[in-house]
Amino acid sequence: MADRSRDGDGGRQRSSRRMAGVKMIRALFDRWNRSLMSGDPEKVVECYAPDAVLLPTFSAGPCLTQAERRGYFEHFMRKKPRGRIDESHVRIFGDIAVDSGLYSFVLADGRITRARYTFVYRRDGNGGWKIIEHHSSALPEPM
């Protein structure tokens, strides 16, 4: 059996650090959502790394450049979406973090769109996080 006497309450400290990391990653969605609600597509695009891949909910193809992402969000933001995380599963792997789950958007006309999502974040050179992969697909109708 390993000697844990030097760890003290290291298990609790690791758990506390992990929870702080999860909370920080979940806050990245809030930043993205505030950008989305700002009405300024450029603010949303700034959340993405230049080499990011966006597979958006309301588009048949990927958005691979900042210009393509800007165009997508210009269109989507006309609907005045307000996002909400319904279920989130965060995993952190050093400078990469993944947040997958379910989210909902309430649109200006009152419609609600529910979707599955995955955000993959990479820590940038300034200590911040950028989205490098974002997949969103509408939930299928129940069978």
Overview of the molecule:
- The chain has a single domain (10-138), classed as Nuclear Transport Factor 2, Chain: A (Roll), CATH 3.10.450.50.
- The chain is 31% helix and 37% strand.
- The protein has helices spanning 10-37, 41-45, 66-77, and strands spanning 48-55, 82-93, 96-106, 112-123, 129-138.
- It has a five-stranded mixed β-sheet, covered by helices on one side.
- The longest helix is centred in the N-terminal third of the chain and has 28 residues, at 10-37.
- The radius of gyration is 18 Å and the shape is globular.
CATH uppermost class: Alpha Beta
Percent strand equals 35-45%
Specify the helix fraction band. Answer: 25-40%
Major sheet: size, sense and barrel closure?
5 strands, mixed
Radius of gyration (CA) equals: 18 Å
Distance between the termini: 51 Å
Topology as a string of helices (H) and strands (E): HHEHEEEE
**What is the subunit arrangement here?**
single chain
Number of helices: 3
Strand order of the largest sheet: 1-5-4-3-2
Runs with pLDDT <50, length 5+? Answer: 1-7
Query: What's the overall geometry?
Result: globular
Stated plainly, the CATH topology is called: Nuclear Transport Factor 2, Chain: A
| Structural class designation | alpha+beta
Indicate the mean pLDDT: 90
CATH architecture: Roll
Domain unit count: 1
DSSP E strands, number: 5
